[in-house]
Design a protein that fits this description.
Chain lengths: 403, 234
């Protein structure tokens, strides 16, 4: 009986193929959006997690500015970090494996006829320790290069590929803005970060060289601190805060003018930003599904009207109200389920394409797919109910006399 | 001859509208039709024939009075109970055939069996048998659009008898057919009446069609004007 009804419904959907398809569009778009979004979202989350475990959860990041409201408030009151903070941390911080200052800027890098906008970082060798980054060929900075601010560079894989192809970059001279810089080593490839950033499009140089030739000031943007394995990150964080308050003379009655965060906190901030985004897209998808549901209701009302005589015949030969109700309810459900399935296929395809483009893992979730299937079926039932009830309540005599 | 009558009209009234606009489609009809009878109902247009047929077929209920079907007060049953009565005991043949469009003959005939809950394979066999009964076993896969009027009406008759009903209700079954086709249909109905004892109540405007019936009831203005039985062995 129910299989019979489903077959009947499929036949009726097929008979009005174009109309059915147009009706489904709302559901298709809604479901596709939800599926794509959730799949891309969980891919991103997975990538972020992988990145963080790669960076090490014991990495702490010190920046200037109030911790509570990044980017808000009057910026001129923020004192940048400088040499003395780095020196204080290097001298007094216990439980740290590495302390490294770093400043960064996007600058155009040129070699021969090729050019590339790359992330230039002024830092020292401790940076490689803190970030667990290896030099695969060549060497890291020498003591004199760091101290003397000599123009020596370590380049990432993307920069190497762009400029040198299969060739050896060692000893070559590249132009960074208006300075030229000798390549001394090549960094191990890290791939894209969970935030879609190419981590290999980087050039590292000694901090003092960066400050003099690129930044034009002696500010330090970030201090990276890697806690050693024996000391909990939380403990190191507290110690950093104490030292920083001391060296920056932040009295107990004032708020900190710097922030210390570990990677988990950064990941959480990222996740909440992603959640906001997901929520907004979810609302769009929800509206689309609502519109889709109304479309189904509309088309089912049309269908019931068109088939009034058929309903009359069925009632005359002994159909119960519930038979008619179920028939149209199943038809509406089949219709929106079909939309849901098409939407799932499109959504997964979009997510697949996005994961290729952004180098994030493709993680389709069975639960999400089943939820989408269930939800689209539910939409059909909810929005199909009123038209179906209208059909079921028809008077057989009048229905038979129709048209 | 007939024990308890199958159909009993007891002062049946059917009125439409109210006050000034009230229409008395049936004005106190008393009538009894026995099991196995073949009855023709005649009368001018608007005399209440279709209204009476709808009540006989349990599609409609009287405004007042009692309609008894198989000893049941069918006029007081709700629409789903009446649907069950129709499905179990009543077959319908309409002037306009009323087959489902774009649906094959055999599927049309199967339809009442679906609502009876007959399993699919039995349904097909029963439907084929009913089609054979009306001489259309070779047209099972034709849709109504691919069948002539006479053939469509035969499919409709097959659909009406596939459930082996007690009563066949036919409102102008030959109204859309030419004379030759009309007589073929009437011969078919007569055979069903004689062979299976199927009770038939049929509306017609033509006396040569009514002549197939054993009894003719004439309606006028919602009343029974005359009720005549054909003499046996004329
Ligand atoms: N649903 C309705 N609403 C209002 N009046 C109706 C309705 N159905 C029937 N009538 C009226 O009831 C009267 C009897 O109608 P009915 O259809 O029974 O006539 P009939 O004998 O079948 O006529 P015909 O031979 O033309 O089919 C007519 O006056 C008709 O206008
Ligand atoms: Mg009539």
């Amino acid at each position: 009986m129910i299989w019979e009804t489903v077959r009947l419904a499929l036949r009726s959907v097929r008979r009005n193929a174009l109309r059915s398809f147009l009706t489904l569009l709302g559901i298709v778009i809604g479901v596709a959006a939800v599926i794509a979004m959730l799949t891309i979202g969980s891919g991103t989350t997975q990538k972020v997690k992988a990145d963080i475990s790669q960076l090490g959860s014991n990495l702490l990041i010190v920046r200037s500015g109030r911790p509570a409201a990044p980017g808000s408030g009057p910026q001129q009151t923020i004192r940048p970090l400088g040499e003395k903070e780095v020196a204080a941390l290097a001298a007094h911080l216990e439980g740290a494996r590495a302390v490294s200052p770093a400043s960064q800027k996007q600058v155009r890098v040129v070699f021969g006829t090729e050019s590339l906008t790359s992330s230039i970082t002024g830092t020292d060798n401790a940076y490689l320790d803190a970030r667990d980054w290896k030099v695969t060929s060549g060497r890291s900075f020498s003591e004199s290069e760091v101290r003397g601010g000599i123009n020596a560079c370590l380049i990432g894989e993307t920069v190497r590929r762009q400029f040198f192809g299969a060739g050896d970059p060692d000893g070559a001279s590249i132009r960074i803005g208006r300075m030229s810089c000798k390549v001394v080593g090549l960094l191990e490839p890290k791939g894209y970060s969970g935030f879609g950033q190419d981590q290999d499009n980087v050039v590292l140089m000694p901090l003092s060289a960066f400050q003099r030739r690129i930044a034009g000031n002696r500010d330090i943007e970030t201090i990276y601190v890697a806690a050693d394995d024996a000391t909990p990150t939380q403990v190191v964080q507290t110690r950093i805060e104490d030292i920083m308050r001391d060296v920056r003379r932040v009295t107990a009655d004032r708020e900190d003018d710097f922030s210390v965060r570990d990677m988990t906190q950064i990941a959480d901030a990222m996740a909440s930003a992603t959640a906001t985004m997901t929520g907004m897209l979810g609302a769009v998808a929800g509206v689309s599904l609502l519109v889709g549901g109304i479309g189904i209701m509309n088309i089912m009302l049309v269908s019931v009207t068109e088939r009034t005589r058929e309903i009359g015949i069925r009632l005359a030969i002994g159909a119960h109200e519930k038979h008619i109700l179920i028939q149209f309810l199943v038809e509406a459900t089949v219709l929106s389920l079909l939309g849901g399935l098409i939407g799932i296929a499109i959504g997964l395809a979009l997510a697949g394409a996005a994961s290729l483009a952004l180098s994030i893992p493709f993680v389709p979730s069975l639960a999400v797919v089943l939820l989408a299937v269930g939800f689209s079926a539910l939409i059909g039932m909810v929005f199909g109910f009123f038209p179906a009830l209208r059909g079921a309540r028809l008077d057989p005599i009048e229905a038979l006399r129709h048209e | 001859m007939s024990p308890a009558p199958l159909i009993v009209f007891d002062k049946v009234w059917k009125t439409y509208g109210q006050g000034e606009a009230e229409v008395r489609a049936l004005a106190g009809i008393d009538l009894a039709i026995g099991q196995g009878e073949f009855v023709a109902i005649m009368g001018p247009s608007g005399s209440g024939k279709s209204t009476a047929m709808n009540i006989v077929g349990c599609l409609d209920t009287p405004t007042s009075g009692r309609y008894g079907f198989m000893g049941v007060d069918a006029g007081r049953l709700d629409r789903n109970r009446r649907a069950e009565l129709r499905n179990l005991y009543i077959g319908f043949v309409f002037q306009g055939y009323n087959l489902l469009p774009r649906t094959t003959a055999v599927e049309n005939v199967e339809l009442p069996l679906i609502y009876r809950g007959v399993p699919a394979q039995d349904r097909r066999a029963l439907a084929m048998k009913a089609l054979a009964e009306v001489g259309l076993e070779d047209r099972e896969h034709h849709t109504p659009a691919e069948l002539s009027g006479g053939q469509q009406q035969r499919v409709a008759i097959a659909r009406a008898i596939v459930t082996r009903p007690t009563l066949l209700v036919a409102d102008e079954p030959t109204g859309n057919l030419d004379t030759a086709r009309s007589h073929e249909i009437m011969q078919l109905l007569t055979r069903l009446n004689e062979e299976y004892g199927l009770t038939i109540v049929m509306v017609t405007h033509e006396s040569d069609i009514a002549a197939y019936a054993g009894r003719t009831i004439a309606f006028r203005d919602g009343h029974v004007a005359s009720d005549t039985k054909k003499l046996e062995a004329a």
